[in-house]
Amino acid sequence: MDLKYSQHIATVLNLSLKQINSIFDLHAEGSTLPFIARYRKEATGNMGEVQIGNVIDQIKYFNELEKRKETVTKTIEEAGKMTPELKMRIQDCVNATELEDIYLPYKPKRKTKASIAIEKGLEPLATILFAQQDVNANEEAAKYITDQVKDNEEALQGARDIMAEWIAENETARNAVRKIFTESAIFSSRVLTTKKGEEDAQKYRDYFEFKEPLANCPSHRIMAIRRGEKEGFLIMDINIEKESSIDELKRKFITVHNEASQQVGLAIEDSFSRLLKPSIETEFRILSKTKADEEAIKVFAENLRQLLLASPLGHKRIMALDPGFRSGCKVVCLDEQGTFLKYITIFPHAPQNDWNGAVQTIKELVAKYDIDAIGYGNGTASKETEQLVRGIDFGKTVSVFMVNESGASIYSASEVAREEFPDEDVTVRGAISIGRRLLDPLSELVKIDPKSIGVGQYQHDVNQNRLKESLDQTIESCVNFVGVDVNTASKHLLAYVSGLTNSVAKM
Questions:
Q1: Domain range holding 420?
Q2: For FRET with 75, which of 59, 452, 481, 482 sits at 20 to 30 Å CA-CA?
């Protein structure tokens, strides 16, 4: 990695260059975060997972930045506009936003008002006016009347179009507007009037007329409004005060008071409304989405960690019930290792209402398979099924637990479940999953796509690649934190052990 990037990361994260370079080398070799944290402490100086993760995120950022620099450099060189000073600025840049600002004046564009005005030969007029020379604007504009420019006003308008684009591409102007957005942008939403009365729109009624400083807006609110916009019920906006923003730009660009500066002032107003504000607003839409994504993903990862690290029940014989009304309650019995022993369906609830028959069946199974604990899913008919099992006298202590069944149906139809139980129906596999989650949550939940376990709201709205990366990393961290018994662990669990490849895990 380039030394300037290593030094930047070391400064920002308050770490040594040796630590940064060690993590870079290990990451480049394919070492995972938990592996580096646990088995390469001498190389990292006993850094924790969070610190190492921050370094790896920075490394990825600069890898992408370097690729972007190559594209930018190539494009500018092909246009014949590269200079030694410009090339040095690009090479020294360590910020993606700054790089895009450097590139903007040289970026290939579609036909714009400014490019049309330049084709008409009005760029020299724009240069004179932008320098705010003490000239008579109309007299100067008259010099540029041609077959393509019919009068003074058209010449001045074309010059203003060119100046507006110069201002919109100016780094000082862009940073000034960014600062205003950062400090005072208002995040707002309003309902589409044509959708206001629709039933589906009512879930967004809190955002029909909503305003809040963007800096204070929590991630869940941003995600909710963005979803409402995506579904066509809301219009979202990020806005700043127009007059004060234009005044700030005028203070930066207008140096004298004459006819030329008046034209510059008009160009500033046009540039702000037509080019600058929409461009920076788009940036902040993306930034707010990225920030909301990261905050949401952190919540998802922590929720998943809590689920995976829930205390296992231990070596107990389990009865698992997948509750239901019309289709009945699916009942399975498992031994201490989670081996499937028995399956049956009971119908204690409406419409069959075979309560007594269900009680008798459960009592017989508990006695026959020496069941120590009963777990029931938290879905449909959960409360009624809890009343059923808690009301039975087994003649011995049988613990009863509610089990989060999120994702059990996903597992039951998965290739993993078909491989484990090729001869069983999906309903049987789902009940087995509920029982095994009670027995050992970590070993069972690693078989399911973490997005299907119910780890948080808006999980389908965030960056899916980033979410998968974070959740997979969380699973690996939990597996390596707890450890596994290599003699009994499934290949799905072993696949998350640091240092083991999928092919080794399958052996």
A1: 315-439
A2: 59
